[in-house]
Hints:
heterodimer, A: 269 residues, mainly alpha, 12 helices, B: 322 residues, alpha/beta, Rossmann fold, Alpha-Beta Plaits, six-stranded mixed β-sheet, four-stranded antiparallel β-sheet, 11 helices, globular
Amino acid sequence: MQWVGGGCMSASRFLRSVRAALRLEAIILGRNRHELVTFAVIPLQTLGFLSVVRFAGRADLDIIAVVAPALMALWVNALYTGGEVVRKDRDDLRLEPLVSSRGSVFGYLVGRVGAVTIFSLLVFTEALLVGWLVFGVSLEISALHVVAVTLVTTAVATTATSILFSVVFVNTRNPHTYQNAMGYPFFLLGGVLVPVTLYPDWIQALCRAVYLSWSSDLFREAFGEGHADGWLWRNGVILGLAAVTLAVAAWMLMRTLDNARREGRLALT
Amino acid sequence: MTSDAIEITDLCRTFPVGSGRRTVKYALDNVNLCVARGSVHGLLGPNGAGKSTLSKILATVLLPTSGTAKVMGADVVTETDRARGGLALVLGGDRGLYQRLTARQNLEFWATLHGMGSPRRARKAIDEVVELVGLSSVDQTVERFSRGMKQRVHLARALLVQPGVLILDEPTMGMDPAAAHAFRQIVVDVSGSGTTVLLTTHDMREAEAVCDRVSLINDGRVAFTDTPAELRRRSDGEQRIEVFETPPDGESRCDELREMPRVLSVETRREGGFLVTVDGRDAVNGVLAALVGMGVHGFSVAHPTLEDVYLRAVGGRGMHVG
């Protein structure tokens, strides 16, 4: 099979690249103290959202105030940390040795971005714990299996989206403009702050193309006393969106690397 | 199996330039070159001559416009995967590594990426290359390394995969002389183990010190290819006679030398003595006889260096790039 970077990708090459990059990113995240800032921001965000819902006398919405910062942290890390992987590799002149190596660049990306997502899941857990321990939000889980499966599918979709960001951003001159613009709108479209069912129908249709809208609904329903009806097919939709995103990301990566090799832009800084 | 590690035939690479990118500039113009297995081949040339372009095409990170290039028998365009299996690329400068990781962690990453087998086997391979390149402080983060040490990590990374062809693109750029000297010795040792080395540089002493053969690239074309010794021998350029003492009545003596046939220049030196430049080897004897006649006995004849050959070939290009 012809694959990214003009090479033929085998499963073993892909897997060893994922493994190498997972470990690499884990070490990088451990060394980069500034990545831990996310942990410090979560309690403040939770405090802010809880204040709003409680001021409105809607304690029944506490769980939204707790899940929202968790999903936001997941999205922000995908956007900023995972989304910068290729650009940083290019700027630090690592992309050329990577492309000319015997590894798979796509596997490498999956590994590094996947590690960022795993790290983000720790933040997700922190948000729930802060809500429970500090603000006394009840974390009664009506369907633990739904939470677990949704967590996995959301992580997969987040990884796929972050890989896409990473490839898109390397093709832009100033990714920070896009990163800054893609925060709040996607929190709204993803139903992170407000359930998308409250939006007009035509916006709801748009929201359903964003995996976060399915994830946030499922999390809200699985926590508390709700019933996450149809959770299996709804998680299937998240995985489907992830598969499409991943396919687009792989195709774009292949095109990006091939164009860069053709135009001599692989090390362009 | 072909006998050459690198075979380049009619290789061209153009880049669009100018407004609208309608005109093209030839970075490489019909380059033909063969590099024998196990040899160290130097690519010399001024900035913008096409050295790095050629290295990058061979390393499969840049596509040629036309022509073919093979590394260990594999075409870099049509057999990219196989070509990558036989080469390793080292770029000059202190970037290209994961700065927050230790040297060992960097090497472990590349070992896993290249599928070097079990962690134990990878560790053994890392220990071997670390020793080969003389890398101390292997458990220190790379960001704290000097440029010379970083370059050793780069070299260790490349050697880890036991490449058939090692491409070094200006590896000693920015290094202090001692570090550069040590690095060159490592390159010689690596070559001794059977690895073919392609070294791009514009440091003539580096090329003379380590290369079995050198090619001079200028304006995208290979001007010549030969051994450094043969290039010097073939050069019938200027010869220099360095005179270490100033004879009595030095200025008029210098004028006498200037009057001699085929003496191109006589430059007096601030610290004493002077430098006589003559046109051709056979003009040396006359000048030496005249110097002895003046009572001067402290002098030496400097043979043409590769640098002289290089400067003659690139002409008056000076600061012009590209």
